Each structure stands twice: as structure tokens, then as C-alpha cells.
Amino acid sequence: MMLDVQGLRTGYGRIPILNGVSFSVNEGEFIGILGHNGMGKTTLLKALVGFLPLTGGRVMFDHDDVTAVEPYRRARLGLGYVPQGREIFPGLTVHENLLMGCSAQDGAKEDIIATVLEEFPRLKALLDRAGGALSGGEQQLLAIARCLCGGPRLVLLDEPTEGIQPSIIDEIVETMQRLQARSGLTMILVEQNLDFIAALSQRILIIQKGTITREVAPGELGDASLVGEFVGIAT
Asked: How far is Cα 37 from Cα 41, in angstroms, rounded to an integer?
């Protein structure tokens, strides 16, 4: 088992957001997380990566208890994070952004970048361009590539299709499927685009009011009565 989360609780100040979240992810598995805005999806990813302290529960990553481990140590253990909004360095070039992603790696950084770029051919022609000059879709590809430069075994991907063009959405799907097949990458995906999350996820967890309430198969997202429970999710 790659990740085991039991009874996770956290929030912001005195405001509780997650109320006993429990789930597990097997190695090489792609898991989707769906829910209304404000139900705790992004908070869950921030808690898993260590950006939010827990008020209860436990997080096991590859049999290591990382509940109280600092974010940079989780990254070195193989936990990667692509936040909502991408958060690339806009004043740095694409190449410099990728170098930043290699900071936790011990190998030759240029070799690492060259290997990652084989999966992101669109970025090869943009290496000298400032990150802030890229389109939204190109920035999202850069954010994912930068994460992969750190050599993660588990990637937490938050709302990657937000504000980007359909052609790059398709490119992300193809890239992540290829990485899963080639390297056994594991992923937790938070997303509201139903077609996207269904294309990538092997199973989908529904989060409501800070708790995982059910699990559905990707094919069930075509059920109008089921989708109707989650108003505001894009089709």
C-alpha cells in the first residue's frame, strides 16, 4: 500500500474542515476525489503534503508514519504536489523552473530534466521563455513537469484543468496515462471536470463536509442522478 490515511482531521484556526478522513491508495493506482467547493478537497491535499498540521489521525506513506514529518522531508520520501493555480515561478525561465524541481534530487540535474522533457515535448521549445509568458495550459504542463523532476512516487494533483484549453487537457491525460504505464506512478487527483477525472481515475472518492462518504467507479459519472448530487461540477 502506497498511502494509508486514518481519521485525518485538520482545519484553519478554530474552523474544522476535515472530520475524520480515511482512505488508502495502492502503488500504481490513480485515485480521483470529487465534491462541492468548500468540502475539503484542497485542504486534504495540503494536509497530506504537510502544509497543514493535523488535529487528529495518521498518515502512512509507504509504511512510514509521516504524520508529523516536515513537507520537505515528505518530498524527499517521494511525495510530490502540484497545487491549484500551478504556482510556477513566473520570473524564471522554463528551464530554471525545472531546475528548482530537481533540488531534492542527488543525480545530474540536466539528465533528470532531459528525461522529464521526453514526456513533455511541448516544453522543449520553451526552455528559455519566462514561466509567466506561457499560456495557462503550458504553465500547467510546466508545473507537472517541475514536480516530476523531484522524482515523486505519489503525485497530488489539484484542479489541473482549471482555465486551460481542451487540447492541453487531452495532452495531460495522455501524459499521465503514459507515466503510469511506464513508471508505475501513483496519483491522487482533485478535479471537477468529470470527463478528465473519469479518464484518469481507477476509482473516485466523494468528499462531503470534510468526510469521504462513498466510492464510485469512473463509469458511474455518466449517471445523471448521481452527478446531480454534486451541483457545480463541470461536465
From this structure: 8
